[in-house]
Amino acid sequence: MQYFGGKQRISKSLSQYLNGQLKDNQPFVDLFCGSCNVISKINDNRLKIANDKHKYLMKMWKELQNGYELPNEISEEEYQYIKNHKEEDMCLTGFVGFGCSFAGKWFGGYARNKKGDNYCLRSKKSTMNKSKKMKTVVFCNEDYKDVKIPEGSMVYCDIPYLNTTQYCSREVGKFDHNEFYQWVRDNCSKYEIYVSEYECNKPEDFEIVWKTSSRKSIRDKNNTAVETVEVLLKYKN
Ligand SMILES: C[S@@+](CC[C@H](N)C(=O)[O-])C[C@H]1O[C@@H](n2cnc3c(N)ncnc32)[C@H](O)[C@@H]1O
Q: What is the pTM of this model?
């Protein structure tokens, strides 16, 4: 499933790094799991918790664990109907809202191309593949500050990037980066916390422990396109 802001492209090397840092049986928490690109690649034999504030998305992951069958096709009319009746089948809404939308943006327009590719089927396959690897994952639908995290856990935080388009604000609210970094400082003695960000957004008191170049570019203050480097940050306590 394409997911705007998802870690699809770098999730293999990122999860390899995290797997290498994990201790035996150490619980793993993906606090902003989105389309679960990372947690679905984390080694088993531990408690794994996936959280996201997006209620439709988390309903989808939970229902898939219970055997929900996703559709092979969604017409544009069905897409519009689901968009206007989100509560009728929240699992389907979660899937269609991202998986059948342009660039994986929450109801950002019915995905199509000139070749007539079936985006729904493609999304279904990738979503089901991930779901099969997450049979024992505990899914939560909370604000990150309210998740009950076992002490000693590794906590991976793929927050919405600073200074980029905020999406799904109706579903998840506006993200307060200062409040989040303070939460990391306050909790770093209880959990081993890693934060994904662009290198240019790194707070002074955090250090880079892993990085990879990104093919994406963002606009700086002068509206010039600059190459982005995706990094993993840890608080220098
Ligand atoms: C960058 S995306 C995560 C992408 C994910 N790692 C992937 O590869 O698909 C950030 C996620 O944070 C979630 N989110 C935003 N604010 C949140 C909050 N206060 N608490 C929990 N989740 C939140 C959004 O719904 C979104 O799925």
A: 0.94
